[in-house]
Amino acid sequence: MDKKWEIVFDYLMYLIRENKVLPGEILPSQNMLKTKFKYSEQPIRIAFNKLIELKIVKSVNGKGFVVQDKLSNNLLFSFRELFPGSKNEYYDLIEVTCDKNISQLTGFQEGIKLFHFKCLRKTKENENILYQESYISKSKFKNLTIDQLNQNGLMLFIEQNSNIIVSHSSKNISFTEEEQNFELLKHFQNLNFKSFILDSGRVYDIFGEIIEFRKSWYNPKFFEWTFIEWRK
Q1: CATH class, range 4-73
Q2: Which of 77, 89, 123, 218 is most buried, by the most CB atoms less than 10 A from its CB?
């Protein structure tokens, strides 16, 4: 289990990531967090110091800890932010048993029941950006349906229908040729390229448990990431 300061840190990041506390607004005070988590002052102070170090918040005398705007910290919470106005189409939600191969791929425990589903993300102009496949634990999402995914997406479903707090995701970005992946290629068959940008990774909760494993194949035309490189 995470250290106490990491749990507080992940909770504060959740508030910022989900726009519950916007840039220019003030995070909950140290006293409020001490009451909520029943922790001493030390882990809460460490969590705030980490946010300051990452330029995510700044301390303002007489106010508290104020969330910085993204131009100040170059903070990216989701690859979806690279594609404003995009929309997802979910389909093929099926139940599978996590066998040895799936366990090695996803990190889920062998033998448990999983939901496997697919997603196609499109621009406002209806161009295909990516094709994605996901695995999630059935025990945590018993009532999940395709209609709910298409209405809200997985992250909003988690926020509105569970006690899960999403913490972070790990990503492995690479180039790949997928000549044998029929489901992928049928969505991009009219485009003149063979190589895709593959984003393979896991989404975790604040206790380090896997929420979702996903593989996303991006159309290279839309994959551009501008960032700030800091020198020390």
Answers
A1: mainly alpha
A2: 218
